[in-house]
Design a protein that fits this description.
The complex is a heterodimer of chains A (about 110) and B (about 110). Chain A has about 110 residues and is an all-beta fold. Chain A is about 0% helix and about 55% strand. In chain B, strands 2, 4, 5, 9, 10 and 11 form a six-stranded mixed sheet that branches. Chain B has a five-stranded antiparallel sheet with strand order 1-3-8-7-6, with no helix packed on it. Chains A and B meet through strand 6 and strand 11 of A and strand 5 and strand 10 of B.
């Protein structure tokens, strides 16, 4: 079974802090994704990566960056956290014919 | 502009009846469609998919129908069970186009009462 692990379930940060959200998958998937989920807005794509050291902007990349130094790990970075980045962040991976597999999410609160 | 639309934010159904969740899309390049189910405090889980070469795909109580000319798909759950109560997301992608990712709708919250 595919496992996508997000390092924190809940996180509280202050405005202006640099925040790192970590995601690891154990199925050797090429593709990894970061989405955020907000009430009434569904799942919105922030960034994705099709290979190590490669990244592509999604629909809402502003205020975020990503890092993929190893195939199994995809990090989302909030350079300077703001209150409008309070959200549920979901990491996902896919490979070959497999559909997207999600982690359990990190609920981030920025105060 | 939303490329994947779920126009009903919520749906209430009685146990044992059919649940029909609808989804519309605008991008004619989409050729692969999926439904995900999400419980609170968990990540979405894959439910069922359909490619554009088919118009129907079944998996147990779940059936997805695709109408390409109308750019519409629907998920039927028969019979509905209380454990089906969750948020359902429709998603689409253009597999034929390299470098694209899944685009999700806003979700429909299904409540199944016993």
């Amino acid at each position: 079974d595919v496992k996508v692990t997000q390092s924190s379930r809940y996180l509280v940060k202050r405005t202006g802090e640099k925040v790192f959200l970590e995601c690891v998958q154990d199925m050797d998937h090429e593709n990894m994704f970061w989405y955020r989920q907000d009430p009434g807005l569904g799942l919105r794509l922030i960034y994705f990566s099709y290979d190590v050291k490669m990244k592509e902007k999604g629909d809402i990349p502003e205020g975020y960056s990503v890092s993929r130094e190893k195939k199994e790990r995809f990090s989302l970075i909030l350079e300077s956290a703001s209150t409008n980045q309070t959200s549920m962040y979901l990491c996902a991976s896919s490979g070959g014919d497999s559909p997207l597999h999600f982690g359990n999410g990190t609920r981030l609160t920025v105060t | 502009d939303q490329q994947v639309k779920q126009n009903s934010p919520s749906l209430s159904v009685q146990e044992g009846r059919i649940s029909i969740l609808n989804c519309d899309y605008t991008n004619s390049m989409f050729d692969y469609f999926l439904w995900y189910k999400k419980y609170p405090a968990e990540g979405p889980t894959f439910l069922i998919s359909i490619s554009s070469i088919k118009d129907k795909n079944e998996d147990g109580r779940f059936t997805v129908f695709l109408n390409k000319s109308a750019k519409h798909l629907s998920l039927h759950i028969v019979p509905s069970q209380p454990g089906d109560s969750a948020v359902y997301f429709c998603a689409a992608s253009a597999l034929s186009q390299a470098g694209t990712a899944l685009i999700f709708g806003k979700g429909t919250t299904l409540s199944v009462s016993s």
